[in-house]
TrEMBL record:
UniProt cross-references to SUPFAM superfamilies, sorted A to Z: S-adenosyl-L-methionine-dependent methyltransferases
GO molecular function: methyltransferase activity
Pfam family, one: PG_1098_Fer
UniProt protein name: Class I SAM-dependent methyltransferase
Domain THUMP-like: 321-391
Keywords: Methyltransferase, Transferase
Stretches assigned to the PG-1098 ferredoxin-like domain: 278-320
Keyword flag Methyltransferase: yes
GO annotation, biological process: methylation
Length: 393
């Protein structure tokens, strides 16, 4: 790493252009010929990305950044903080350290953290940054994680892994065996060094696929940030043999929405109903979990249709998702569309409906936005309906 990038004049240049399009800055002549211009632009682009995602790094002087892509792929501070709330004990080894955001938060919970990163330059960047961030209980190793485990030859309370897809796996169905490291193949080896393993995966992974590839799964956490699923966390315990607990978490600005259930536990029959006074739409983490009947049972709601995943009740409640007051329910036909929605302004959601939002807008000339929310869906009699609502939450 070229540490001349940390010179005060270069850092001031980066800060002065933090709100400027990098492509425009790139057209300038390099004012610091002794430092690679591409590196300066890389630092600028990555720091811009860190502004909202990694405020602690952004606000700390003389931080080094890897590529903008590396910053995009790293955990956000909010999701890293959540992961740190799940671990306990004294020690953790991160086998896929990356930019070190997760380990920064693990270090606040545990006394000893080991950061393994096979990319020497990235390991050097992380080591430097931990000094700037005044983190003293993380050791960085620029080596293959399996070799580090064998060299250290000690038991850890936790192993943390964020496997990355191999380049030759593009286009294939996302499987853990197609990632580096190959966690399913190495599980027994990992369990010889720790009884507890946390595996982070991208939200694209099918949960049932992850379950089929792994063993000893105690919990699966589905983590969303502002209603966008960011990661799946598989918590494995060496001695766990019973059912899997599914936990969903939606990290919002001022609160957390949580919901949990036991996988494959016996669910009572779900009740169905026509739209009542209120409509409930589960958050993205619950939708990813597949707990569509469990959410109805736990909150005493009725579903509009088996596959619509919209719920209704005459009672309002604190619900993990969006809540609407129903103003009207229409059969989906030309006359109703012309009377109530054509040439109007409305927010459109489709659930278990044969037409896309784009097609509906175009067909009926509906403008986007406003205070009217319209759900195009299928009801319990398999009829196509439109539920017109006002958003309460």
């Amino acid at each position: 790493m070229d540490f001349t990038i940390l010179e005060i004049k270069i850092q001031q240049f980066i800060d002065n252009h933090i709100n400027t399009d990098v492509s425009k800055v790139a057209l300038q002549k390099n004012p610091f010929p002794e430092t690679d211009w591409a590196l300066i632009l890389q630092q600028l682009a990555a720091k811009q990305k860190a502004k909202s995602k990694l405020p602690t790094w952004f606000e700390t002087p003389t931080i080094l950044y890897p590529s903008k892509i590396s910053v995009e792929q790293t955990s956000s501070e909010k999701t890293a903080e959540y992961k740190a709330s799940l671990v306990f004990g004294e020690s953790l080894i991160d086998l896929t350290g990356g930019f070190g955001v997760d380990d920064f938060y693990f270090s606040k919970t545990l006394n000893n953290v080991v950061h393994c990163e096979i990319n020497t330059e990235l390991s050097e960047i992380v080591s430097h940054n931990f000094e700037q961030l005044k983190v003293k209980n993380v050791k960085c190793f620029a080596d293959d994680s399996s070799e580090v485990l064998q060299k250290l030859n000690q038991k850890f309370d936790w192993i943390y892994i964020d496997p990355s897809r191999r380049n030759d796996a593009k286009g294939k169905v996302f499987m853990l065996k197609d990632c580096l490291p190959n966690v399913p193949e190495l599980l027994d080896f990992y369990f010889s060094f720790s009884d507890n393993i946390m595996i982070k995966t991208a939200p694209i992974l099918d949960i049932s696929s992850g379950i089929s590839e792994l063993k000893n799964i105690a919990q699966i956490h589905i983590v969303a940030l502002e209603n966008e699923v960011k990661e799946l966390l598989f918590i494995l315990n060496k001695n766990h043999k019973s059912t899997i607990e599914i936990k969903t978490i939606n990290l919002l600005k001022n609160k957390q929405e949580t919901f949990q259930f036991q996988l494959n536990s016996e669910v009572k029959n779900t009740n169905y109903s026509v739209p009542k006074k209120y409509l409930f739409e589960p958050n993205a983490a619950i939708m990813k979990s597949g707990g569509f009947d469990e959410i109805a049972i736990q909150f005493g709601l009725e579903k509009l249709h088996q596959h619509s995943h919209l719920y209704t009740s005459n009672e309002i409640m604190d619900f993990p998702g969006r809540v609407f007051e129903i103003k009207n329910t229409l059969d989906y036909n030309k006359a109703n569309m012309k009377s109530f929605l054509e040439n109007q302004k409305a927010n459109i959601t489709t659930r278990n409906f044969p037409e896309t939002v784009e097609n509906i807008r175009k067909k009926w000339k509906i403008k986007d936005g406003g205070n009217l929310y319209s759900f195009f869906t299928t009801d319990m009699t398999n009829s196509k309906i439109v539920v017109l609502c006002e958003k309460l939450k």
